[in-house]
Amino acid sequence: MASQLTGYALLTVLGLILYLIAMLAIDKSKRNRIQSYLLADRRIQSGMIASSVLACWTWTTTIMGAAEAGMWYGISGGLSYSLGAAIPFLVFIPLVRRLKKIMPEGITYTEFIGERFGPRTKNAYFVFATLVVLYVFMEQLIGIGLVFKNTFGVSFKLTVLIVAFIVISYIIRGGICGTFLGNVFHFLTICLLLCTICFILTRNLGLHFIYDGLLDASENKLNPNYNQSILMLNSIYGMRYGLVALVVALGQVLLDQGYYSIAMSAKSTRDLTAGFLMGAVIFWIPISILSASIFGHSAIALRLTPVQGIDTTTEIATTILKLYGSPFLSILFAVLIFSIGVSTGGNCLIGILSIFTVDFYSSKFRPDATDPQKIRFGTVITVCIAALCSFIAIALEGISLLKIDMFSGIFFAAPCGTLIAGVYSKFSNENITLLATFLGLITGFSTWIYFNMSGGSWFYGCLLSFAVPFIIIAAAYPFTRQRFNFVKLKYYKADGSRNDG
Amino acid sequence: MSFLLYEIIHIGAFIWFVIGALLITFLMIFQRVNARTRR
Question: Which of A344, A381, A386, B27 is most buried, by CB atoms within 10 Å?
Answer without folding.
Answer: A344
